[in-house]
Specification:
It contains six helices and three strands; from the N terminus they run ααααβααββ. The protein is mainly α and about 140 residues long. The longest helix is centred in the middle third of the chain and has 33 residues.
Amino acid sequence: MSENSRQELRTLNKKLSEIMKRLEIIEAAVMLESPQLSSIVRGLEGGLQLYREPLIFVERIGVLRKLIKNKDIAKDEISRTIVISLALRGPLNISQIAEIVKAERGKASRRIIRERLRKMEAKGVVSKATGWGHVYKLAE
């Protein structure tokens, strides 16, 4: 995926986020006046979310394609599995990542996963995300 395509995806995602925020404001204002109209606005929000999720997924896959070429990740099966998991599923906490790696490789400890995540975070491959516990996502 070219840098131009990635930039277009980011711009489109940003615009959809802005529209979602505006719809939330409209819904709050309309809710008191007309419950039926509020229901229509909620339907619009749901429709926009259907467009937004695939865009986010395509963007994560683009990042994955770039990262998978990194020699450190290509050599290390655990790191590679972590990066692929974050690309396919989005932000995950250490326990979720450990479960996925265990399912893929047969064994994985939270300590090793935490260690790999810290190394990848230092190299700018992953970053911390908001969420319960220590949640990680692919760096942008």
